[in-house]
Amino acid sequence: MDTDVQVSLITQPYTLRQLTTYFLRLGATGFGGPPALVGYMHRDLVQQNQWISEEDYREGLALAQLAPGPLAAQLGIYLGYVHYGILGATLTGLAFVLPSFLMVVALGWAYVYFGGLPWMQAAFYGVGSAVIGIIAIGTYRLTVKTVGREPLLWVLGGLSAVATVLTESELLWLVLLSGVVVWLVKAPPVGLRLGGLSPFLLAVFPAVDSPLWQLALFFAKAGAFVFGSGLAIVPFLYGGVVKEYGWLTEQQFLDAVAVAMLTPGPVVITVGFIGYLVAGFPGACVAALATFLPCYLFTILPAPYFKKYGKRPDIKAFVDGVTVAAVGAIAGAVIVLGKRQLTDWPAVVLALLAFGLLYRYKKLPELSLIGAAAVAGLLLRYM
Q1: Closest CA to 76 of 38, 46, 114, 132
Q2: Is 32 within 8 Å of 134 (Cβ atoms)?
């Protein structure tokens, strides 16, 4: 184990194999998108197994929120880094993404072979409704644990949630501002010593006619310059794959989003499905690699500095502010998704049932709810 990164006190030791196995299982069974996935990690790794400290989790969530790319994948990569360095980050990242990538590639093949998946929309109706309930209960628990009873954190988290609902996007400037406010209140600086935040510069690439090169450049840009959770990438993808390049039709793009929500793991894995429709299996591999490589680099490169300086009172205060803003944005995303998904009373009932069951039975596996909701969606569609 890398001694340079052993800075956290944990109550239970664990092996890299155990952690990798956990992320492999989470990638294969974790439904609900970024809000639910980050909640699962907190529940399993911090509260139940006690492998990761609350402080390390908050640092990882803050870094994932500050850097561009998919939130849940970056948090998983950082948690792998905490005690096992770059090797841990690499293995947890691969284990988290691989199961859902294989699933969307298989669905992409079926989609092309059968000329569409009409049953998917029916199943997605039920699954999407239940997922809202799953995300809501996860966000509720994460909020209570993270924000606690501090009025300032509740105010900042509430502002972030309201801003997310109104703009239907996560505002990076508000996240940063929240960090600065908590820093100034909790650990006001004696002298102003701000480290520079290097801006991300968009590289200029030569135009290449190959579809694979076009896919690589487009999805690398998506992974490197879209901030917020995996949900934030959907509007960006729509503008590129439908409007700019015309790779997919409107219906194909909606089906791609449905696939992302219908399969476990990070929502961003929809890029594998899109890549498959554009250029087959090579296209799926190129799209996924180009999207996730930037977020991997944006996580492991600043991670040592987070580990080294993250315990300073001023840095810790800033991280607390960023974290609460991130949680507020996740809560706002639940409302945004709910408005789009819960369009009739059966959908509302399914969401409330999922929320109520998980609130009452804390150990109820989410996968069982997802399966039941998919069946309910099919029955409602074809009755």
Answers
A1: 38
A2: yes
* Gap between the Cα atoms of 280 and 73, Å rounded: 24
Confidence label for 164 from pLDDT (cuts 50, 70 and 90): confident
DSSP assignment letter at 232: G
Residue 147, burial from CB neighbour count under 10 angstroms (0-12, 13-18, 19+): buried
- Which of the two residues, 137 and 202, has the higher pLDDT score? 137
Work out the number of other CB atoms within 10 angstroms of the CB of residue 243: 10
Distances (CA, A) of 365 to 124, 240, 247, 358: 19, 37, 38, 9
Residue 199, Ramachandran bin (φ over 0: left; ψ between -120 and 50: alpha; else beta): beta
Radius of gyration of the chain (CA): 20
> What are the CA-CA distances from residue 44 to residues 41, 47, 88, 171, 266 (Å)?
5, 6, 17, 28, 17
pTM for this predicted structure = 0.66
**pLDDT digit string, tens, across residues 104-122:** 999 889 888 877 666 766 7
Per-residue pLDDT tens digits for 205-217: 334 456 788 899 8
CA distance to 68, 96, 184, 362, per residue, from 313 (Å): 25, 32, 11, 35
